[in-house]
Each structure stands twice: as structure tokens, then as C-alpha cells.
Amino acid sequence: MHTVLLRKLLEALLTLFFATLIIFALIRLAPGDPVRLMLGHPGEIAAQGTSAYDEKVAELRAELGLDRNIAVQYVTWLGRLAQGDLGTSIFTGKQVGSEIAARLPATVTLSLSALLVQIALGLIFGMVAALRSGKLADQLIRVACVALASTPAFVVGLVALALFAVKYGVYEISSDFSAARLWLPALTLGVLGAPQLVRIMRANLLTEFGKIYVSSAQSRGLDRKRVVRHAARNALIPLVTMVALSFAGLIGGAVVIESIFSWPGIGKYALDSILVKDYPVIQGYALVAVLMVVLIHFLVDVVYSALDPRIHHKGEAGREEKA
Amino acid sequence: MRKLWSVVLLGLSLAVAGCSGGNSNTGNGSPASSSPAGSATQSEASPSPQASGAEPQELVVIGQEINASLDPVKPLTSSYLRNIGAGEALFKVNAGGEVEPSLAESATEVDPTTWEIKLRPEVRFWSGKAVNADAVIASLERSKSLDLQAQPFLNDLTITKLDDYTLQVRTNREHLPVPLNLSYYQTIIHNDEASHEDVATMDLTGMYKVTEFAPKQKMVLAINEDYWGRKPTIPTVVFEEISDEQTRVLSALSGRSHVTLNVPVSSLTQFKDNKEVYLSAAPAASTQTIYLNLSQPQLQDVRVRQALSWGADRDELVILAAEGQSTPVTTWLGSNPAYAAAKNAVYSQFDADKAAGLLDEAGWLKESDGIRYKDGKPLTVRLMTWGGDKALGEALQSQWTRIGVKAEVQHGDYSLIETARESGDWDASIEAWSTFGEEYAVLSGQYSSDGGANYGGYKDEETSRLLEELKKAGDPQSRHDLALQINERVAQQAPVISLFPRPQVTAVSGSLQGFEEHFRQFENVVNANLTLTAQ
User: Fold this and answer.
1) A241-300 residue pLDDT tens
2) Residue among B34, B76, B433 whose CB faces A46 most closely
3) Do A47 and B452 touch (CB under 8 A)?
4) Which of B387, B396, B480 is nearest to B432 (CA)?
5) Apex B196 CA angle, A276 and B257, nearest 5
6) Is B16 in Cβ contact with A31 (below 8 Å)?
């Protein structure tokens, strides 16, 4: 067990290392100079002679270390990361770590709420679709799932705002992080992510319904409700992975919804920073998002190994056979 | 299964509880809210209107962007501070384009290179410190050394103290309009001894004091009770950033925001039947301009450049790209209220035949595919656009294609344009610089060989000679005439093609009275005359 965990931990660390390389290189491949973007135009009125502007650009580039060799910049960044320092925002001059930490509660609250909506919708409609397989309810759920899965998030978000904020006046459009403002983005994000869970729940349940233990239980006259309950419990196990990955995706990928609803989380912070090529913030955000995914994958592996010893034993059996 | 539902319910409760704590909002019926980003928010205790029993009133202003910092010397911060009533300069420009005293009492031109500025003795910073000659000089010196954007307005000035409330300003050039230079937002007066990192310590002079700030998210302001001028009546101002343009429009339509800045022209139809919100579309003093790269072989011939200008139907462009919220201008200075004569100069009307004639003359002949060729090469123009200019680019593409130019629109991030300019691999791009300001500064930045906005490498002896004359010109009339001459010369040489003043649409709630339209709306929203009434 410990060997398996150690191997998984090493894999996670390796993934993180390669992620830092890719993140660092990709950001710098994108066109645009963060220093020039921060300084904006040389003035409200275009100045005659831009030497002062060019000098300031060079001075800031040196101050931020952007004039150094890219490999040196990378190593310096890694060195800071090792000390838990994500760097300083070029645009605001504030610590990226503390800025992300300050915005994380808003994103986590939104992601958790959206996840709960997803789970609730996934379980309910997945079960209904499986129990009514091939019938009208199943068809309707399928059509709704396809429609939602193929509609861009910004369209659903804007329609939701037009309905609830403008038409019915029950939602306030502002930039606050408040309970009163949570329900609509959470519902939107939850509804957008639910189709996947609905389809997986349906497929898993139908697989369980086809197994011998279900037909033997039914032939022995066991109550239908109890049979479904047993099957549902087994169908839930693969769903754990989906839910965990969905949560990781929500933490790092709620960018569009946070922007549309002006929700002050890390997604909006990242989007604003991407527009001004704020390297340290983009790197910090991407790293946190990757870290979340890696961590959640690792935890899922651990939970799986603990929940289902066959997975752990299968691994060992395989190695023994090879030996 | 029951356990699962319990977990789901518990999770929901925790999520709701997680964001329900915090300050109660002082707004009109606004739900309880905590400002965001936890520790990123700075706030100063301020008395609640509810506590005093007064009717709570707050003015909500929504912009595409708000400041990332409180320090006026950080890029663009001073424009937001002035816009929302927190910062003031020595002078200001009214909606008619005239310069008026603000923190200064008066200004007198003593001789061609010397001005005397009297300060108002009653003005105090929020901290109570006097805004005297020493404080003003220190503030302007700080802006000059730390804010790159302030340098064009301050570099030519040497400011000294005559007495506690009188400044002497010596200028490098004769008849420099010093009050105009000291009216720009980059010159707002701040206490140089204060730390502008925090709402509790920042020190300005405006009618509203910042009480809460979350960078690039929200700024809350309360009345400055010791304000030197007429005090405003609305107790609280909330300035929020909503970067998504459609969300901003919906915020205006929902009635939550009283002033919504930067309304995209593509959304104007959404306001058509709305009786509670009206649109203010004061034309901005900045011209949407196509900058041509004169180092590209096909654009080196002045006839090709002129043909592109004749071939642009500006009336149609205003309708297609600005939803009719602007007026055509044929030369660059046309968007400046003081140069109305420049609106229809040189390219008096759209003339496709003239454009075709010029291209024929230049040897670019139309072939069966409708495109013009010379030495087997097609006449191409790659037009780079960014932001909201995609529709403008596409309309131009269609118009130029009609005269046989193979036009291609490359729409993307502004950094792509910057990168292309650095490499020299570009044909044309669209930009809108301010045309309002001191004539020589404005025109030399665009058309002198080392002008910051002379992207295409325009170099013309006649233009340079006229610019030198303008630099030395003394009386306002000859400066005005010379500026018009330069403007016309440039239009004839066509290194740039001027189209129309950039549309500047603001949605204003019908419940707000006293809102003043301004050609520089982005820094002129809050004034002391604003009042709110129930709709």
C-alpha cells in the first residue's frame, strides 16, 4: 500500500514539474509585452520622441527580471516556488499568493455550490433516465442533456441574467461576493455541468441492472425499490471520480461564468491578468489549477485503493505475475 | 442514499454560510454583501446612513475597468479617481472644451514664457493639510518623476513658489497654454507625504473620499465633509468594474446601475424601448484613424493612399460600425470641437470613381477577378483591428474590395498589433488618439518624424516646416490656422485615414438628475449637482 502511494506521489510531483515548464514556456510564447501593456500608451497625447518611455520600459523590465535569459527566469521562478512564493503581480504590485488566497473562497464557494447542483441533478435525472430507459422521459432528458452540453456557458449565463436580473428583478448584478448573489452563477454552472453526470449515472445504473445479482434478487421477489437502491449504490462508485474531476475543473475553469456574473473569484482574476499578460499571476493561477487537479487525482487514487482493495491487489498481482 | 442527501444539504448550507458573512451594504435595498476578496479589500469605518436614520442613497457607477491601485501616479489610476469625484487638478476642461479653474483660483500669462497661478487658500487635503504652493509643487514633481503619462504635460514647465498661495510657471516654449496642461487627469493634486497604498492613508482633495477599495473590482466613496467647494448631496458613491460588456448592459437595464460607461454600440437596440434608462452619446475628441505602414511597397505611392481614403464611405461606416452614434470626419482634427472646419476638409465626400482613377493612374489595374494587379501582384491591404473595431474593419474591407483592393481584416489582441509594428510586418491598423490639447503637442506626436504615434514612418518636409512654425507661433489665431494647415497637408499626403470620432456611449438611469455629457466622459461622471429620485 505504501509503495503504491509513494509511486503515485512521485507521479504527481513529476506532473507538476512538467506543468511548470509548459506553463512558463506557453505564456512567454504569446505575443505582447506585459511592461508596455502595464504602462499603456506613452501618454494621453502621443509624445514627440519616445526615449523616456523606452527608458522606463527597459528600467521596469530589468526590475522585474524580464530582461534576463528565459532559462534563468524559469529557474528563479522555480526557486521562489520552492519557498512557496508565487511572485508579485506586474500590474498591481501585490503578492500573487495572497491575491489568489483572497479570491479562492469566492471560487471554492461557487464551485462547491455548483458541484452540489450537478450531483443533485445528475443523480435524480440519471436515475429517472435509467428507470425509464427508452421511454419519453429518457428521451426528453437526453435531448436536454445534449442541448445543455452544446450551449456555450456565456450564452446560458447571459440568458439567466436577462431573465432573473432584468425581467424578474430578483438578482442583483454587481461585483460583490455575497450569498444573495451566489444562487444564479451556481445554478448556471451546475446545470451546465450536470449532463455528463446524468449520462454516466444512467449508463452505470443500466449496467448494474443487467448484472446477475439484480436479476436473481428480482427473481427472489425482492422489493423493486430495494433492488434499485442496491444497484444505485454500486453505480455511485465510478461517479466519485467524475465528481472529483468535475470539482477540479470547476475550480480552475469557472472563468467564463465568473466573468459573466462578475463573481470576484480566481477565474476573473486570471482572465483580467491574461488580458494584460501579467506573467506571475497567469503562472500562479495555472499552477494552482494544475495543483488542484493533481491533488484531487491523487486523493481519488488513495480513496479508491482504500474503498476497493481489489484495485490495490490487482496492481500487486500483476507485478508478481511479471516477476 | 439518505446519507448522501444529508451531505448535499449540509454542503449547500455551508456554501451559503461561507459567503453570507461580512458588511451590510449601505445601498438601496441591496442584499447583504461582503466585499470580496477578503483581505484584498481595504475599508475604513464609515457611519452607516441607516444608523443616522437618513434615507440611504447611493450612486452606482459601472465601468469596464476600475483602478488597480489608489496611487495617482500609477498608470490610469488618476483618471478613475477624477471620474468618481475623489481627485482634482488645478484646472478642468468643461463640456464646451474651455479650461476653467478648479483647485487654482486664476492663471495669468505674465510674459510669453511665464505664468502666475493663484491657489485657493481654503482648499485642504482630506487629512486637513493645506493645499499651498509647496504641496502643489511636491505633487506635480512626484507625478513628473513617477508617472510617465504626466511627462508630456509637465516636462516643459518649471514651477516655483512666489508666496504660499502663488505659483510661477516658466515654460520652455512661448505661449504654452499652461492651464490646459495642468487640467489633465495625470496632474491631479495629491499629498506627496501620504502613502497612497491604503484608503486610510491616501490623501486627495475631491468632494468624495474613498472608504473601501478592492483593486479592479469596487471602490466605495463617502462625502468629504470638509470639501472646499459645493458639497454633493448623494451620500455614497459605488464605482464597480464589470468587464463583460453584455453584463454591463444588463446591469443598466436591470436598473441597478445609475451610470454605465462604455456601452458597446452593438447593444444600443437593447435600450430602444426602455423608458427608465437613456443613452448619452457625446462624441469623444478622438478620431478613429487608419494608420498606414508607409514602408510597404504598395503604400509608398501617395495615390494609393489617397484612393483608400476616397474609397472609404464614412457615412456608411458610421452606420455599420458605430450604429449611427458618431459623425463622419475626413481629417484627423475633425473630432476636436475647436476644429469643426476640419470635419469635411480634403475628402469632402465618398468618391469611388476618384479612387478608381487614382489607382489606374498608379498602375494598379483591375482584372477579371475584380482585384487590381501591378506587375502580376495583387493590391492587398491587411488591416489589423482590436477591441470593438472588428465591425469597422469588416465594413472597410467590403468598401475597399469594391474599388479592387484585396483587403483582409486581422482582428485580435492589441499586443498582436504592437508585435507586428515592432517587426514591421503590417499594412494598416486602427487607433484613436485624443485630438484635444495644445496644438503643437497633439500634432507633433502624430506627424513629426519622431512622434510617438507616427507608426507608419511618415516624413514630409512641408509638414515638418509647418510644425516648426506652429512651435514658435504666438497668438491663438495663427496657431489655429497653422494647425488647420498641417491637418490638411497630412490629409493630402494620407499617411493616415480619418473616419469618425470614436463613439462614447453611456447609459444613464432616469432616476439620476444632473448628469452632464462631456467629450471626455471617462473622467467626468461625478459632480456636485447629481441627485437621485425614486423612479
Assistant:
1) 788 878 877 877 688 899 999 999 998 888 888 888 889 999 999 998 888 888 888 887
2) B433
3) yes
4) B387
5) 60
6) no
